[in-house]
Design brief:
The protein has 128 residues and is α+β, with helices and mostly antiparallel strands. The protein has two helices and five strands, in the order E-E-H-E-E-E-H. The protein has one domain: Alpha-isopropylmalate synthase LeuA, regulatory domain (Double Stranded RNA Binding Domain). The strands form two sheets. It has a three-stranded antiparallel beta sheet. Strands 1-2 form a two-stranded antiparallel sheet. Helix 1 (30-42) runs parallel beside helix 2 (89-108).
Amino acid sequence: MRPARYAHRHRRLTGPDGESYLKAAIGAGPVDAAFQAIDQIVGASNTLVEYRVSAVTEGIDAIGEVTVRIRRDENGRRTFGGHGADTDIIVSSAKAYLAALNRMLAHTGWKDRLPEGEAASVGLSSNK
């Protein structure tokens, strides 16, 4: 008999409307399950393009930093990145994923909120 390779996670999020949401999901691992639970709450389809973990500190209570890059399914050219850091890699991953989702939704809009478009991107210009 082989052990199951699936993980179960639940996430509680507070939406822009101030409402609290709780969802549970099953994934290929704990990070995937956390992302699935977040996706159920947010409801914005996307594709994970990059997932990277690096240690910021050393030791048993090391801080792990996660970088996530996602792409909106309808528009495959633009990607949105997020970073998260915590002693719990699942929490770091959720923070990074939410940061990327927030950037994507600010740019493209969400439900009744209008997109900010390029205003959601930081840029520098020279006034010559």
